[in-house]
Amino acid sequence: MPAANNPAERAADLRRRIENANHRYYVLDDPSIPDADYDALMRELEALEAAHPELASPDSPTRTVGARPDGGFPEVHHAIPMLSLANAFETPGVPDDADDRTRFAEVADFERRIEQKLDVRDPVFSVEPKLDGLAISLRYEGGAFVQGSTRGDGTTGEDVTANLRQVRSVPLRLRDAGVPVPEVLEVRGEIYMPRKDFAEWNARALAHNDKLLANPRNGAAGSLRQLDPAVTRRRPLALFAYGIGEVRGLELPETHSETLALLRRFGFPVAPEVDTAVGFDGLIAYYRRIGAARDTLPYDIDGVVYKLDDYDQQQAMGFVSRAPRWALAHKFPAQEQATVLRAIEVQIGRTGAVTPVARLQPVQVAGVTVTNATLHNADQIARLDVREGDTVIVRRAGDVIPEIVRVVEDQRPPGTVPWTMPAHCPVCGSDIVREDGEAAYRCSGGLACAAQRREALRHFASRRAMDIEGLGDRQADALVEFGFVQSLDDLYTLTVEDLVRMKAALDAATAADLLQAVADSRGALVLDDEGTALLAQAGSEGVDVHWKRAGFLRAHLAVELGGRLASRWAENLVAGIDASRNATLARFLFGLGIPHLGETTAKALAHWLGTLAFVRTTPATLLQALPDIGGEVARSIATFFEQPGNAAVVDALLASGIRFSDEGPPAAALRERLDLAHLLATLPVDKLGGKSAQRLAETYGTLDALLRANESGWAGAGASRAGAANLAAFLADDDARRSLVEADAAMWRLLDAAPAQAARSAGPLDGRTVVLTGSLASMTRDEAGAKLEALGAKLAGSVSKKTGLVVAGEAAGSKLAKAEELGIEIWDEPALLAFLDAHS
Ligand code: IVH
User: Fold this and answer.
1) Fold for domain 100-331?
2) Long-range interactions of 721-728: CB distance < 8 A, separation 24+
3) Residue of 64, 132, 190, 299 to mutate, ligand 1, most atoms within 8 A of C-beta
4) Mean pLDDT for the chain?
5) CATH superfamily to which 7-63 belongs
6) Per-residue model confidence (pLDDT) at position 447
7) Among 138, 151, 242, which residue has the most ligand 1 atoms within 8 Å of its CB, making it the best to mutate?
8) Which of 82, 196, 234, 419 could tie 151 with a disulfide, CB 3.0–4.6 Å?
9) Does the pLDDT at position 90 exceed 80?
10) Which of 206-220, 522-536, 670-684 tops mean pLDDT?
C-alpha cells in the first residue's frame, strides 16, 4: 500500500478505495476486500478527518452509508434515513490477562460517554445479534405491505417490493397486535439466508456445476436484487426485524425492547437471542454469550449490537454524521482474511475421488491458524479463476472446513497461469479421469493406489465379493495399517506368523485404548457386551482371571486371550484366504472395485465374455455393445484395466493361484446379440439408430467395406442424411476411428471363440417362443431373456399366435392383454423364478 505522506493525498486515496469497495459490495454484490480490511480503511479515514477537519467533506464515505443504487430498480426515498452503526473491535495486541475495559476499550468508551452525557449509572441496553445479511425497510399502510426497499446510501434505496413479497417470513399484512392498525409503519430489519439453506444451496450448485454463493450474505443480497421475483422465490431467504422507521397513527412504547415485542405481535420474526443488558459488564457478558453460541446459530452473525433501550435517552444522545451515538456494533474477529495461495495440490480420497486443496501462507482467521483450504473441485477453481501465487480471501465459518471465496484480482502477480487438473495421480501415477457430466475427477489406479488401499482390501474381502472368511473391515484395516498388505496380492503370501504378529500389534493398540478408557472412566465396574464376551471366552479358554476393575479386566483379557487365540485366528484366516483362490469370475470382477461395476454387471460381463482375458482386453466401444452394459461402466472397466498398476495387481493375483470355476468360452448367444449393426448402433453418433445401423451392416457386410465408402455412400445405403453426416464427422477423428476398428477386431475374436448355437444341448424350452413384458423385480429383462435362451427359448418382441409363453412382470400392458385374448400360457415373476430355479 503506497503510504502517502501528504494527508490530503492519503485521504483521497482512502476515499477512492472505500468507494470502490462500496460499489463492489453494495451494487455488484461481489466484495473485493475482506470486511476487516474495509473497516481498517474506514477507521484510518475517520482518524485522518478528525485530525484534519479541513479534509472532511459532506460526501466523504465516512458520512454516507453504502453506495447509491445503480438504477436496476426504481428509487425509494427513506423519509427517516436508514443509518449505519459505529463499530467496535477487540483492541489488537492486548495481553491475555488484560481486564475487559482494556480489551474492549471502545465498548467501555461508548458506555462511559452515555453515562457522562446522561448522568446515569449502568444504563439499560437492548442487545441483539448483528445479522450478516442485507438491511431492508418494509412499509405498511393501513396494515398492508405496500413497499419494500434496500438501504442504498441510507437516504435513497431500491424498490424491491416484488422480491420481498416472495420472502416467506415477510408479513404481507400486519397481524392484530392488540392496538389500532397504524396508518403507516416502517419496519427495518435484515434479510438473510439461513446457514443450512445456504449449505444445501451450494451442495446442489456443486452437483449441478453451477456457480457457488460465496457466503450467506452474498446469497441474500444477490437473491434480493434479482430482476425476476420468481428467481427470488426459489432462494431460501428469511427476515429478522430489528427496528422501525416512519410511524404514523401508532403510539410507540417507551423503549426499543418493548417495540421489538410489539413487532413480534404484529407478526414479524425477531431474533430469539435478542435480550436486554445492564451497564458495561452486561454488554460484555452478552458479547461472550453470543460469541460462544455463534457457530451453533442457524444464521451468520458478525457481531452483536448494543442499543440504548430508552427512547428519551436515545434522543438525548443524538447522532454523529452517519451513526447514532446511542448504538454500537461490537464485531467478532473477522471470519474472512486475505492471504497468499502458495500452491494447489490434489488429494486422493479412499474411493479415488480427487479433491483440490489450497496450500496457503498461514493466516489467522477468527482465532485459528489456517494453512489449507478446500477448493471443492476443478470447476470451482475455474469459476473463481484461482491461480497459484494469487492473493485470496479465505473464509472460516464455525466448524466448516476453511474455503477460498474469491481472488483479489488487483493483487495478482505477473506470470500466473490458470490451474489445470494433473493428468496423473500424485500417489500412484495412474491416470486421473473425469466421468461424463460429473464434476468429480477420480484416480483410476484403484488397486495400485496407496490412498485407496484400505477401501480396496475391505471391498475385495467382503461377503459379496471374494467372501474371505475371518477378514472383516477391522482386520482389513489393520492389515493395511500395519503394512502387511500393500497390494491385494500380498494377501496370498501372508503366513500364520505374519498374522500372529499383526494380531499382537492390534491387541496392544486395543489394550492401550482400553487402558485409556479405564483411566478416563476411573475404572467403574461396568462390563459392556464385548467385555462380557471376553470374560466368557476367558472362562472357556481356562485363562486365569484376576482383576480389580472391569476396564483392567478387558485390557488384560485382550492381551492374554489375544496371544492364545491369535494363532487359531491366524490359521483360520490363512485357510479363508486360501479358500478364496477358488473364485468365480463374477465375484472377482466385482471384488476389484471398478467404479460403477456392481454385482449384476459383473455377472453379465462374466456371462457374456466368459474369461478374464476377454474382460481385460475388450475395448470400451465393444463392451458397451454387449447386452446389459452401459456406456459409463464400459469406459470405467476399460480405463481400469488400461492402468499399468491395476494390470500388475491383477497379474499378481492370478500368479498367486486364483482360479475361476465359471470360466468358459464367450456366451453362444453372443452370436445373435453382437454384430456390426449392434456395434454401429451403440456409437455416440446422433441420428444413427438401430434401423440405419442395420441397413449399413447389411449393405457393407464388414467394417472394412463400410469405412471404404463415404457419407454419400452411407446415405445411399439407407442411413438417414443426418446420420451419415454425423458418422462422417465422428470418423474424421482418428482416435474414434481407431477405437472402432479395435472394437470390430475384438468383436470377431469374441465371436470366433463363442461356441456355435447349434452345439447347445436340448433345453426344457427348446423351440418355444417366449415374450417378456412388464418389469421384473429380481432381474432385468435382458438377464431373464438370457436365462430363458440358455434353456432353449427363442425370444420374441411381440405376441402372436406363434407365441408359446408370455412372462408378464409388473405393469405389463397390451402384450399381456393380447396373450390373455389368445389364450397363451402366462407366467408371473414367481412362476419364472421357480422354473429357473428348477433348471439351474
Ligand atoms: S440497527 C440506527 N440492528 O448492521 C441503527 N442493525 O452497520 C441502524 N444489522 O445496516 C441499524 N443486525 O444491515 C441494527 N440488530 C441489528 C442489526 C443491524 C445487523 C446491520 C444492518 C445495518 C448495519 C449497520
Assistant:
1) D-amino Acid Aminotransferase; Chain A, domain 1 (3.30.470)
2) 722/686, 722/687, 723/685, 723/686, 723/687, 723/688, 723/689, 723/692, 726/685, 726/686, 726/687, 726/688, 727/683, 727/685, 727/688
3) 190
4) 86
5) Helix hairpin bin (1.10.287.610)
6) 84
7) 242
8) 82
9) no
10) 670-684
Neighbours of 536 (CB within 10 A): 10
In the predicted structure, residue 59 carries a pLDDT above the cut 70: no
Claim: this prediction has a pTM higher than 0.85: no
pLDDT band at 551 (very low <50, low <70, confident <90, very high): very low
Per-domain boundaries in the chain: 7-63, 100-331, 336-443, 483-580, 581-664, 665-759, 769-838
In degrees, rounded to 5, the angle at the alpha carbon of residue 77 between the alpha carbons of residues 74 and 83 is 120
Segment (H or E) for 76? strand 75-77
What letter would DSSP give residue 431? Answer: B
Task: Give the pLDDT confidence of 91-104 residue by residue, as tens digits.
Answer: 766 777 889 999 99
Atom of ligand 1 nearest to the CA of 134: 13
List 369's β-bridge partners, or say none: 364
Orientation of helix 7-22 relative to helix 35-51, angle to 10°: 150
Q: Which amino acid is at 530?
A: E
Residue 690: is its pLDDT beyond 70? yes
Pocket, ligand 1, Cβ cutoff 6 A? 83-85, 128, 130-131, 135, 151, 190, 242-243, 305, 324, 327, 329
Told to judge if 687 belongs to the known catalytic residues of this protein, a careful annotator would answer no
Give all strands of the β-sheet with 134-141 in edge-to-edge order: 144-150, 134-141, 184-192, 238-248
Domain 665-759: give its CATH code: 1.10.150.20
The string of DSSP letters for 18-56 reads HHHHHIIIIISS---S-HHHHHHHHHHHHHHHHH-GGG-
The CATH number fitting domain 769-838, selected from 3.30.1330.40, 3.30.479.30, 3.40.50.10190, 3.30.870.10: 3.40.50.10190
